[in-house]
Amino acid sequence: MTMTPESADRTESLDFTSDYETEKANLQKHFGRREVLFFTICTLVGVDTIGAIAFIGPSSFTWLAILAIAFFIPSALLFAELGTAFPEEGGPYLWARLAFGRLAASINNFFYWITNPVWFGGTLTVVTIKAIEAFFRNDEPVSSTWFYIIGLVFIWVGTFGSILSFKVGKWIPILGAFARFILLGLFTLSIVLYAQKFGLHAPSLGSFKVTWAGFVMVAGLILFNFVGFENPSSAGDEMKDSQRDVPYAVFRSAIYAVLLYGIPIFGIVLVLPLDKATNLGGFIDAIKETFSVFGQDVAADGTVTLTGMGSVMGGVAAVLLVLCVLSSGVAWLMGSDRALAVSGYDGAAPRSLGVFSEKYGTPVRVNLLSGLVATIVFVLAHKISDGNVGKYFSVVLSIAVSTTLISYIAIFPALWKLRVSHPNATRVYRAPFAKFLSVWLTAVVTFATIQLLAPGLGNGWFSDDYRPEGWEASEKWKYMLTEAVPLVVFILIAVIFWAVGRRNLQRKA
Fold first, then answer.
1. What's the pLDDT score for residue 155?
2. Cα separation, 385 vs 332, whole angstroms
3. Which of 12, 89, 120, 133 meets the CB 3.0–4.6 Å disulfide criterion with 237?
4. Higher pLDDT, 410 or 298
5. How far apart are CA 308 and CA 292, in angstroms?
């Protein structure tokens, strides 16, 4: 591929390797404005954690509103600039590398990538199984054999979906976005009908009051749901017009995301008493409860079974839920796998990972690696938790949240740093208060990460107000190790990736 003088100057100014142009030639531009918007919605809105947030109580809804203003909107402003000023493939990795060098970017990018197969093989898979049990088996657990069959099929359908070119694969996020709107509409309608027929669980206004302990408990989960604006920029060179489409998608998806989180969480708070909401199945339980207005049978022990139209509606909800979680996983794998592949041909990871398929225009090797990691997580977590899906869900979700937030510690400050180091980059959109945004957002995710590792640190570490459910006060070091050891292992692997990539660069020099 022959470079124009302009592209040659751009390549030199951004310190790209010669492999950049080689792999760029395999990319396919099928990523238009509509696709970027729906892709961003699927990235931002994950239904798997709605129940976990609502489980904390009415105050979680208040914190959701506060952090939407204090975190979500500022991050949208930040990523609208970065995604248009530096629109090349591998966005989040590239921004961190330009700002802080290949070593820092390699570590940061490994966390950005590893989060997703862990999350996909963990929480997303178990939510899928939970939905099938709730709506097709009346909460009867599937057998161990079927647990593995359903889980493995889900993981590898998603993995192969991420391998497909955007021309085909884009339909998974598009359908997933529509599934969210339809599911939200049905849930909202059922809440109205439920209120008319049975009344609502009415929490007092005082229960919406915020506390410091409540913030510590819910901050990590809400931030986990409020990140992802940058993910489409991992496919920057596959966009038809990134400088036009990124701001369009960022600001519109922000509005949709607030509604798609806020309405279900508020609905759960209204419909389910706190003692009935569960970390894993809160949203599923609320759907099942409200759909009872369409047809139900109540057993002597109070167990509700959906019947008639209620059963039909429940089946529709299950299909929509599965499509929602599948599209979330596929969207994140599509983005983070590309970011890891870019680091592979950019000298911050093994070159063998930095290969894009000539046929599909996707990083097939990294896609398959993600599927393998997700499978290992799925099998090991189920074994370690002795088949306790609730415990399985909590452990894997906690690791996914911490690795996700860590990956933004080098992305958020990149805005300010690149304003200084690359002042001549064309910025069709400039975020206001760049220095403040970088410092503020970095401080928020750093604080939340520390509190995930040591809940309540600075104000009663691991005391009753901060200790995660199921843990004893004497187990605070054990809890910290379960969180910290995987993080240390990930850092070591990332450093090895960087060392291998650096050696490849030196050989070419």
1. 97
2. 26
3. 89
4. 410
5. 10
Report how far residue 149's alpha carbon sits from residue 464's, in angstroms, rounded to the nearest whole number. Answer: 39
- As a whole number of angstroms, the distance between CA 421 and CA 438 comes to 15
Note the helical H segments in 272-388.
Answer: 282-290, 309-345, 364-384
pLDDT classification of 355: cutoffs 50, 70, 90: very high
In sequence order, what are the residues at sequence separation of 6 or more whose Cβ sits closer than 8 angstroms to the Cβ of residue 454?
Answer: 461, 462, 476, 480
Region of 209 please: left (phi>0), alpha (psi -120 to 50) or beta.
beta
Q: Are 201 and 444 in contact (CB under 8 A)?
A: no
Q: CB of 328 within 8 A of CB of 124?
A: yes
Q: Name, in order, each residue with C-beta under 8 angstroms of 435's C-beta and a sequence gap of 6 or more.
A: 416, 419
Tokens of 84: 């248009």
* Tokens 């920029």 -> residue: 233
What CA–CA distance (Å, rounded) separates 72 from 40? 14
The DSSP code for 429 is S
Q: Tally the residues of the chain.
A: 509
pLDDT > 90 fraction of the chain, expressed in percent and rounded: 49
Q: What distance lies between CA 287 and its chain's CA centroid?
A: 22
The gap from C-alpha 84 to its chain's centroid, in whole angstroms, comes to: 22
User: Rounded to an integer, what distance in angstroms lies between the CA atom of residue 408 and that of residue 96?
Assistant: 9
Cβ-proximal residues to 423 (8 Å cutoff; 6+ apart), any chain: none
Burial label, 400 (beta-carbon count in 10 A; 0-12, 13-18, 19+): buried
- Read off the tokens for 374: 């997700």
Q: Which of 185, 162, 183 is nearest to 173 (CA)?
A: 162
Q: How far apart are CA 399 and CA 373, in angstroms?
A: 14
The rounded distance, in Å, linking the Cα atoms of 99 and 77 is 18
Torsion angles phi and psi, residue 473, rounded to 5:
-60, -30
What pLDDT score does 301 carry? 63
What are the residue ranges spanned by the domains of the chain? 28-508
CATH architecture for the domain at 28-508 = Up-down Bundle (1.20)
Which helix (H) or strand (E) segment is 156 a member of? helix 144-163
Residue 341: which pLDDT band, with cuts at 50, 70 and 90? very high
Dihedral angle over CA of 78, 79, 80, 86, nearest 10: 110
What pLDDT sits at residue 368? 97
Give me the pLDDT at residue 41, please. 92
Nearest to 395 by CA among 481, 282, 330, 283: 481
Residues contacting 277, CB < 8 A, separation 6+ = 51, 54, 55, 268, 285, 286
pLDDT at 1: 45
What pLDDT was estimated at residue 51?
74
pLDDT score at 195? 83
